[in-house]
Model the fold of this input.
Amino acid sequence: VVCLTRQSTGARDGCTFGYKDMTETMGPCESDCPAAILDELTETDSTYASEWRARCRANLVRRKLERAKPVPKPGQTIVFDESIRFNDGEDRNRFTVIANPKGKVPLFRDPITGAVCRIAKFRTRAYRLINPAIVPKDTTDG
Done:
């Protein structure tokens, strides 16, 4: 059984919790099942269930690879393998990473125009960092 839940604290109708349950043989679209649960499942003959399990495993591998990428630090230059089209119609792939005063996700500055932007789910894109992160100097004697 796959059970999806949603919690909403500000619903106008007062409903703050919803759920949808189905079996894996129904071919659910959601495919973010944790590995610990997948490991507990018994063998299946269902094509839908097998495909769903494979999608879940593929998503686990994808997320692991995304977490293994180097995290851009303020001051570094990031170059995306594929250009990103922005609302002004321009394609860009090179940015300077800047600190985001409102959160953990960095902001990016176009080195040519100086425009600052957010890039949604940037870690899902292929990128490389040009210059290394600034490492603090060793203050110990020796």
